[in-house]
Design a protein that fits this description.
By secondary structure, the chain is mainly alpha-helical. Helices cover 79% and strands 0% of the residues. Helix 1 packs antiparallel against helix 4 (61-89) and helix 3 (48-57) packs antiparallel against helix 4.
């Protein structure tokens, strides 16, 4: 009806795939943090993984637990935010089946 390819993609296709992209990002947050911590433990000189490794050598478990709790709260907040944004912005999308 006279729409360009860009207009079709922007107005029809992108809104249909955007909730799936957000759901994929949300589901990959926890593995991302695990790989980030593992790589920081092995090869970094800064970061949470490096700090946990240094504290672990001196057996300060109370400090390690604080770091783990902080990371869990941050990742859970991001996860909840993405879920809430998807529910508000795309009410037709249900992520239980994809």
């Amino acid at each position: 009806m006279g729409a360009t390819d860009f207009e079709v993609v922007y107005s029809r296709i992108l809104p249909m795939i955007w909730p799936h992209i957000l759901n994929t990002v949300r589901l990959n947050l926890r593995p991302l943090v695990i790989f980030l911590l593992a790589s920081e433990t092995l090869a970094a000189e800064a970061g949470m993984g490096h700090r946990i490794f240094l504290v672990w050598r001196f057996m300060h478990m109370d400090t390690i637990l604080v770091y783990v709790i902080i990371m869990s709260v941050v990742i859970s907040a991001i996860d909840y935010g993405i879920q809430l944004w998807t529910k508000i912005r795309y009410p037709w999308f249900e992520s239980n089946g994809g």
